[in-house]
Amino acid sequence: MSRTIALSALLLALAVPAVAADPDPRTLLQLVDYVGVDYPEAVADGSVVNAGEYAEMQEFSGRIVELAGQLGAQDDVADGARQLRALIRAKAPAADITAVTARLRDRIMAAHPVMLTPAAAPDLARAAALYEASCAACHGAGGYGDGPAAAGLEPAPTDFNDRARASQRSLYGLYNVITLGVEGTAMPSFAALADSERWALAFYVGGFAATDDELAAGAAALAAGVEPPDARTLTTSSPRQLADAAGQDVAMLAMYLRQHPSRVFAARPSPFAVAREKTELAALQFRQGNRAAAYTAALSAYLDGFELAESGLSAVDAALMRRVEADMFAMREAVKDPASALPEVEQRARSVLAGLDEAERALDETTLTPAVVFSSSLVILLREGLEAILILAAIAAFMIKTGRRDTLRYMHAGWLAALALGVATWAVSTWLLTIGGATREVTEGLTALFAAVMLFYVGFWMHNKLQAKRWNQFLHGQVGKVLEGGTLWTLTLVSFVAVYREVFETVLFYQALWAQTGDAGQGMLLGGAGTAAVLLVALTWGIFRLGIRLPLKQFFGVSAVVMIVLAVMFAGKGVAALQEAGSLPSDPIALLPRIELLGIYPNWQGIGLQLAMTAIAIGLVLRYRRAPALG
């Protein structure tokens, strides 16, 4: 955060035994950052200008080499650490040290996943309140290090307005110190704060040093069309680094963005930002020995992040979408496997992060054409609504063919209530509460399994009526009695469940697709959804008319088969949803294709349940067909 605070942090790092297992890569990054910032105070023009500072540079460069070895660093990291130590021993120019530390930081970040950006726009209003409550007593209201509690503190609190140091300090460096704290000084760890709050504080204090002229220049650069740095560059680069790499306009723009982060970060995090943040968190939690938290984070990376971008990515590059999905599954499996070692998990994390970057670039660089947006929107609604339509049309035809049109209101009440509840659930999750991906998948999985049970029951209820004795009893005065009993409410409940399980997921897919399209594309999205709705209505009418024209007994037979087949499909989808939520294990079956539309997923748990249901269905059919002969 400042030279004094960073120095204390580094002295603490030096005190850590060299034999410590799995050191935190953030400590290594903190050391490298400190050396890159403070080396000019130790050496100038090839001569030592501050013996104490130079001794620290030598110590820290040696510690960097040690930590790189303890981390099991890749060759490029270890080589960079040794090169840095050699340059410091040779009293190399400050520019050379700055260049080496910048490259070394990049290598460490690539080799050891750490959280480098906030998932959403930092809330600076919240940061101001946190600063006043927890920081101003030492650092002062204006960030000059002159708070009422600063007197007598050694080292003195940071002066965030020190322009020389502020120009060399990255937002990630600030966030890192806020997270880790500095033992032995008045600077505590703020790890108890939410990650978003720590990032907000980093942006807040990182903006103190900006002058009005610099902010005006940054705003003017943005208005003039200067391309702002991306989120990762903004947080990991200092203003001086940006000026050297991209020019003074970009550096001024970066200072402006520290005080206006919403220009870079979306108010709601993008699926890729969430996926990256949670993947990096999973690797960090695993490194710290917390496998349960690591698995939760890895699971959230998929459910709360990447899954919401799958639909749009599938329209651009389906093979890439499947590869990233497979990499994320492999990481989850590695995290929870007791035999997994840290290098394997970090390698999995690197694969996931590389895939996420590639996927985001694919979407950014590929403008979704109106035709792609239209077809994606059309397919989403048709795919999600097909099973519900089959069920509703069959129920409606059944009620009419049995002479009970008056009972149609129960079916309509079921699906209308499901539609209303689904939309309400989406609205609540969007504006009031956050419904996590795991909760969403568990709800979908349990609903699908419940629907499977209900459909299985209805299918065999219909099949049972086909047998000669039962059929004659059903036709002679029993239709009204049956529908006035529990069966009517069963069919109503089936219509509710069949629709509700589709609505919320459908809205989420549309929400993600909407965010990936421009104004023109959004019109095509609505057009695709409207066309799909018309097709579903036509499909409903066609199935209904076909059912009406079939002889009653034949209609019962066809409907029974449809209900049982759908029950088996729903069972596979329910198991898959619970597996994605981490509630059920998943043992893959090699070579078996994945056919989501049919509820076929290549794992033993889902296929085993479907085979069991099929065997039960065959057994019940044989039993019912023998029953008349035995009666």
Description:
This protein has a two-stranded antiparallel ribbon with strand order 1-2. Helix 2 runs antiparallel to helix 5 and helix 19 packs antiparallel against helix 23. Strand 1 and strand 2 form a beta hairpin. It folds into four domains: 109 residues, no CATH class; 140 residues, no CATH class; 95 residues; 261 residues, Growth Hormone, Chain: A (Up-down Bundle), CATH 1.20.1250. It is built from 26 helices and two strands. The chain has 631 residues and is an all-alpha fold. It is elongated and about 100 Å long. The longest helix is centred in the middle third of the chain and has 32 residues. 73% of the residues lie in helices and 1% in strands. The N and C termini lie far apart (87 Å).
Q: Nutshell version of this structure?
A:
By secondary structure, this protein is mainly alpha-helical. It contains 26 helices and two strands. Strand 1 and strand 2 form a beta hairpin.
Give the topology, please.
Elements: H1 3-15, H2 25-38, E1 43-44, E2 47-48, H3 51-70, H4 75-89, H5 94-111, H6 124-134, H7 136-139, H8 163-166, H9 171-180, H10 195-206, H11 212-223, H12 231-236, H13 239-246, H14 248-259, H15 271-287, H16 291-305, H17 310-336, H18 342-365, H19 370-401, H20 408-431, H21 437-465, H22 468-484, H23 486-515, H24 519-549, H25 552-580, H26 604-630
Antiparallel strand pairs: 1-2
